[in-house]
Amino acid sequence: MKKIFYLLMIISLASCKKTPTPPPCTNCPPEVDLNNINVSILIDLSDRIDPATNPNPTMEYFQRDIEYIKAIEKGFLNHIKSKKIITYDDQMQVFFNPEPSDPKMNEFTKDLKISFDKNTQRNYFDLVDKKYSELPLNIYQSAIKDGKYVGSDIWEFFRNKVKDYCIKSDQRNILFILTDGYMYHDDSKFSQENKTSYLTSKLIKSNNLTTTDFKDIIEKNKFGFVKANDNLNNLEVIVLGINPEKGNPFEEAVIKEYWENWFKEMKIKNYQIKSADLPSNLEPIILKVISGK
What is the pLDDT of residues 231-281, one digit of tens each? Predict the structure, then answer.
């Protein structure tokens, strides 16, 4: 009996030993904090912003862009103010592709690159607000005055820059693109079978995408943008300012179809594509996107 008792005691003590703690993970991916945001704004400075080429008596398109940017900044600051200072780890920046010829643009973008951390002073909010109230207008005025509209190389930006510039592995990444929806630049103009790195009104017409069955035509012929990147599932994209040329009642829908299919192919799950509406109509949408509600 004693032998059995001692045996049971040994088994009992052995079972009470603590499970050893596993060593810390050294190669694990960082956790994403959805409350920390990384906001980027990509501006298409092609001739779509030229008041002489594309006038709009209600509100010029460059003025709409400026108001969109102000709404983005407003949503960003609202987000920061909703957090405790110790949790600040957020940033916002502006990009062009290609860069305009005016060397001042580099200074503008440098000033518009802002970040908040736990050491941020309270008066920094006013400084940011001042920058985003003044500098966007300077950017558009400079581009319009220069008059050398070189097109928008959005495809190349997604191919070579979006991961480095707009995506942080431990944050919620949001990219706003201000464009009319057309894409064109000589340096990135090419095609692979029926897909292209560009989209123009002329291409839409030549592909016969001018009737109600344009979706069937796109699917059958595999029209669309050439895939520029892959696995962009940690990037949210909001396109603002779609502005089709007149003459084709389906032009806007075709443009949106191209963009939607492109985003899906690059594994972008969260995206919105909005027309060049008045800023007062788009501001609530912008604020909602940034708040994540």
Answer: 999 999 999 999 999 999 999 999 999 999 999 999 999 999 999 999 999
Q: What is the dihedral of CA 149, 155, 159, 162, to 10 degrees?
A: 70
Please tell me the distance from the alpha carbon of residue 58 to that of residue 155, in angstroms, as a whole number.
31
CA distance 77 to 90: 10
Q: Are 272 and 204 contacting, i.e. CB atoms less than 8 angstroms apart?
A: no
Q: How far is CA 98 from the centre of its chain?
A: 16
**CATH class entry, domain 33-291:** alpha beta
Question: What is the rounded radius of gyration, in angstroms, for the C-alpha atoms of the chain?
Answer: 25
Which is more confidently placed, 152 or 17?
152
Average pLDDT over residues 53-60: 95
Burial 220-250 (b: 16+ CB within 10 A, else e): eeebbbbbbbeebebbbbbbbbbbbbeebeb
Count other Cβ atoms within 10 Å, centred on residue 114: 21
pTM above 0.85, yes or no: yes
Give Cα separations from 254 to 45, 52, 171, 244 (angstroms): 22, 26, 33, 9
Mean pLDDT taken over the chain: 90
Question: Is the model's pLDDT at 16 over the cut of 50?
Answer: no
Run of H or E including 109: helix 104-112
Q: What is the dihedral of CA 57, 275, 218, 43, to 10 degrees?
A: 90
Both tokens assigned to 107: 């200074």
Q: How far is CA 125 from the centre of its chain?
A: 23
Contact 42, 235 (CB under 8 A): no
Which amino acid is residue 136, in one-letter code?
A: P
